[in-house]
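Message: I would value a second opinion on how I read folds in token form. Give me a protein, with the fold worked out from its sequence. Write it directly below this note and I will take it from there.
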Amino acid sequence: MKLPWSSSADDLTKGDVRFVTHGAARRAAIALACAAAVLALAGGVAIGHFARPPVISGPAGANQHHYVVGEIGRMDASIALLEPRIGRLAAELAQLRQFDQRLRAQSVRGATPSAAPARSGDEGDADNDGDGEGGPALAPHRCVEASAARSNASTVNGELDCLAATLSALEQATAGHAAAWDAFPGRRPMDGGRNGSPFGNRIDPFTHRLSFHPGMDLVAPTGTPILAAAGGRVIFAGPKAGYGNAVEIDHGNGFVTRYGHASKIDVRVGQIVLPQEHIADVGSTGRSTGPHLHFEVLVNGQPVNPANYLALFAAPIDG
């Protein structure tokens, strides 16, 4: 079965937004671990170097003491600013790597979401966002080179600047993957509820004849909040034949989600919504036998099985 994100099996969709691959995640994780080690080392080097300065008596000694205290304070402040950034980046990478594992596990089981748009190109440009960039592929420089015995204030400050720049590069690279994750329509569009009629052929509840059901039904009481399955832009909000009150959200890269039979709509066309944002309330408007949400995932205008997408966010990670 064709993988949903690309012909190379490493890109999620066409366009400029792609998911982190195993290789990219591994490289970023290694760099992040090195960054954390550098941060601890830089702090230790600074304290170790300044903790026991040469004893100088008189006014010069007092000036040296104030200088040392000031330098340690500045370095401590720099480290305090970097630590939460490392924590946030580590959490984002863990989340993206888990999702990558789910995508690959689905493909192994043969249940990977199908009909997602393909992207031209090869794996070599997987991390290229399309801007004019290039140059030789060289290993990154280490931020900490000097030993504790040879370090001084200038050296340590330079190491902290190097670390800050490295973190900025990692954050920028991760941001695109995080945006793709936010726009992937796999979050359950309501809290609770039970699965009703699935995607595919079924006996129509009105004609009692075989018909195709282009989405899945989630049964819940009237008024239950309907949530956006991913971030995107509202492209339709209002009555739609067969669907009653409906909302459609464009998530980019060919993905659109549709929510039908709502009792109330809480968004407008053109509005940007976030993942799991309240967009409407469950109802029984349109061609419906009772209160429920009709949920569709469309890829390039064609309906696909939403259950495969929801499974990517619901499946546990082994190991």
